[in-house]
Amino acid sequence: EEALDRAYFGCPDRSGDGSMLPLWCNIAAVSDIDQVLQNDGGGVGLMRSEFLFLGRQSAPGEEEQYNAYRQMAERLGGKPLVIRTLDLGADKQVSYLGLEKEDNPALGLRAIRYCLRHEEIFLPQLRAILRAGAGQDVRMMLPMVASLAEVRAAKIMVERAKTQLREQGLPFRQDMPIGVMIEVPSAAMLAGEFAAEADFFSIGTNDLVQYLFSADRTNPNVSNLNRPYAPALLRLVQHVAREGAEHGITVAICGHAGQDPLLLPLWLAMGIGELSVSPASVLSLRRALSGLTQEDCLPLLEHVLGMQDTDDVLDCLQEFRSRHA
Ligand code: PEP
Ligand code: MG
């Protein structure tokens, strides 16, 4: 199997009938770029920047972050690099940011919520990302966004960072694209409104399913509710994909569901614009994609979107895959 996948190195991310579905990678460190290149990933669709902040005694400053982001972009040699701003809180905690102990950290002051209240952490990161984008295809995306006000506030901060850099004469990417992660149900519901404020969407299915079903993604007692085959999740993703298309922005998926070969025909049929996956799954997904056509996938999508039960969806997807593998 692996040799068959390897044969797809250098091939386009294209379905059997010619639709493109770019396969990019999720990474957490500069050293992960090797894996992206070794597996022929088209770029980085999710750089989890919080990993630069974990396992240390103090926050990395602007220069340290700039160096890391810059190295990633340079090693990618022109392939896009989407840097997600700090997504700390919930399961990812550090001692030094003064995060208060909360009863429900997954529902608490995390990610963009924290950043908007801690300029001393957020501004240096925004500056580092903007600077890393000078002459490079670096893009920025915002995690855990729940309201339009958060996007607008973050964009004001980005403008502040740009003004500072301009005054200091430091080079940066003037037209830095700003994407919004869709991983909170409130944002998914208002996808049309968010699309007017965002340069692209990336759906974080790990959190979206957790918040949609009120089922902790790390709690095995409720893992039965935490499944990406759930009709409620699929219908919501379809809604986001449609709203994104209507507003002319790319809708990516960067959660784990994006690399599930059972779900690939649905993403193709929905017109998802990019999947960001683990580097190790790029070539097998590319191979699977080459065997799919809209003619087969569109009726499958219509069929599963009409279902009520998660297990029925799973059965149906397995049956489809056994016929198309
Ligand atoms: C997600 O929630 O799907 C996601 C990609 O982000 P993370 O897994 O880092 O929360
Ligand atoms: Mg998430």
TrEMBL record:
Mg(2+) binds at E183, D207. Residues 16-290 form the PEP-utilising enzyme C-terminal domain. GO terms for cellular component: cytoplasm. Phosphoenolpyruvate binds at R48, R84, N206, D207, R217. Its EC number is 2.7.3.9. Its cofactor is Mg(2+). Keywords: Cytoplasm, Kinase, Magnesium, Metal-binding, Phosphotransferase system, Sugar transport, Transferase, Transport. It is an enzyme of class 2 (transferase). The active site is at C254. One of its GO terms (biological process) is phosphoenolpyruvate-dependent sugar phosphotransferase system. It catalyses: L-histidyl-[protein] + phosphoenolpyruvate = N(pros)-phospho-L-histidyl-[protein] + pyruvate. It comes from the Bacteria. The keyword Transferase applies. GO terms for molecular function: kinase activity; metal ion binding; phosphoenolpyruvate-protein phosphotransferase activity. It is found in: Cytoplasm. Belongs to the PEP-utilizing enzyme family. General (non sugar-specific) component of the phosphoenolpyruvate-dependent sugar phosphotransferase system (sugar PTS). This major carbohydrate active-transport system catalyzes the phosphorylation of incoming sugar substrates concomitantly with their translocation across the cell membrane. Enzyme I transfers the phosphoryl group from phosphoenolpyruvate (PEP) to the phosphoryl carrier protein (HPr). This is Phosphoenolpyruvate-protein phosphotransferase. The lineage of its organism: Bacteria, Bacillati, Bacillota, Clostridia, Eubacteriales.
